[in-house]
Write a structure and sequence with these properties.
The protein has 378 residues and is an alpha+beta fold. Helix content is 16%, strand content 29%. The chain starts with 33 loop residues before the first strand and ends with a helix.
Length: 378
């Protein structure tokens, strides 16, 4: 799995203090009607314990105690289920995750109004077909149109906002990456049980020295009223629909500049890295994941630039990581995949499209990367 698929800190959004929680893994299923057609250490890098859930995904209700330094907080369960009947969902869907084998283009989706939205891969890429995460605005039904000759068409309706409550142990004090405040996994409602499949960790953590940093956009709606819910939706899509076993990015940044911890990296309190300063392999740049850190900005940055707050947080985060690991954000480097020896000549801080055929991180974001590199190198 590791090489397949692919200023003052801003306060956390109010949504992460709302009622929420997460449920166990949903099943992947076919849609009803488919028509053909320098070393980091926990002491220096992370100011407080990340408060990550245990590997069993235990919550306050099951343990009966709140660990020191945390406080209980509830989140709406992220529910996911295959559509039934004429693509009717079991609940109002925030997103629909789709995956198929065959031609990468030519798929579409309709939410009952007759308008067919063409599906593109957005940020996620797969080796043998196409995939998309589509905002569905609470739809209760949908219809998929598959590319000619497509097989193994699967879809999952995802609800990030209306599920039953689950309680998490959230750090009582802000967590920071060398001064850059971030929300740890429990602080945005990451259900650790979704990393498991058939009773085992689906994508066990492996670690390699950091070589490069890659910038993405999530290709989700801009002006997002509940970015923490969107992060939970992306987590569900990556971990369950695409079967990657976790969210694909190491960090995500919303339009308010809030930074979210992504891929699980252990319980040592260091986001993205282990206690020895090696990077956990994530799933953001297929074939080039090991030793490559992925940062995704929430939203679609094809015609619209990132907000000033998001860009500032991106620069700070890159600067912190680059300084601690001795990287020059403006340098050219030859990335060497430590798993299979595949190489790629890139800038130390690159865009997703520098590695693969994709529009990610969006044209406006890509055009800003020279500025971002220069600012992070100062």
């Amino acid at each position: 799995m590791s090489e397949s698929p692919t200023p003052t800190p801003h306060p956390a959004p109010s949504s992460h203090r709302r009622k929420r929680s997460l449920s166990r893994r949903g099943a992947i299923g076919a849609a009803g009607a488919v028509a053909a057609g320098a070393t980091l250490t926990p002491v220096v890098f992370a100011a407080t314990d990340s408060g990550a859930a245990t590997d069993s995904g235990a919550d306050a209700a099951s343990t009966g105690a709140t660990p020191a330094g945390t406080e209980p907080e509830t989140f709406p369960a992220t529910r996911s289920a295959a559509a039934t009947g004429a693509d009717t969902t079991a609940f109002p869907a925030s997103y629909v995750g789709v995956r198929w084998t065959g031609a990468a283009t030519g798929a579409g989706i309709s939410f009952g109004d007759g308008a067919v939205q063409r599906l593109t891969g957005g940020c996620a890429t797969v080796d043998d077909g196409g995939t998309a995460l589509v905002a569905s605005g609470g739809a209760t039904s949908y219809e998929l149109t598959a590319p000619d000759g497509a097989t193994d068409v699967r879809s999952l309706a995802i609800d990030c906002t209306h599920g039953p409550d689950r309680t998490f142990h959230v750090p009582s004090e802000p967590t920071r990456v060398r001064g850059v405040r971030y929300l740890s996994r429990p602080a945005w409602g990451a259900d650790e049980s979704k990393r498991y499949k058939d009773g085992k960790v689906n994508s066990p953590e492996v670690y390699y020295p950091l070589q490069t940093i890659t910038v993405h956009h999530t290709d989700t709606p801009n002006a997002d009223p509940d970015p923490a819910a969107t992060v939970r939706g992306i987590y569900e899509y990556h971990a369950v629909t695409l079967d990657w076993g976790d969210i694909g990015y190491h960090f995500l940044i919303d339009e308010a500049g809030v930074v979210y911890e992504g891929r699980y990296s252990g319980d040592d309190g260091v986001p993205a890295f282990d206690a020895d300063g090696k990077l956990v392999t994530a799933f953001h740049t297929a074939g080039y994941n090991s030793g490559n850190l992925g940062i995704a900005l929430l939203g679609t940055l094809t015609d619209q630039p990132p907000t000033a707050a998001a860009k500032a947080s991106l620069i700070r985060l890159i600067k912190v990581i680059a300084r601690f690991k001795g990287l020059d954000p403006q340098a050219r480097t030859t990335f060497v995949n430590p798993v299979n020896g595949v190489t790629k000549d890139v800038t130390t801080v690159s865009g997703h499209r520098d590695w693969l055929s994709t529009e990610c991180p969006g044209q406006t974001m890509y055009d800003l990367l020279t500025e971002v590199r220069a600012a992070a190198a100062r």
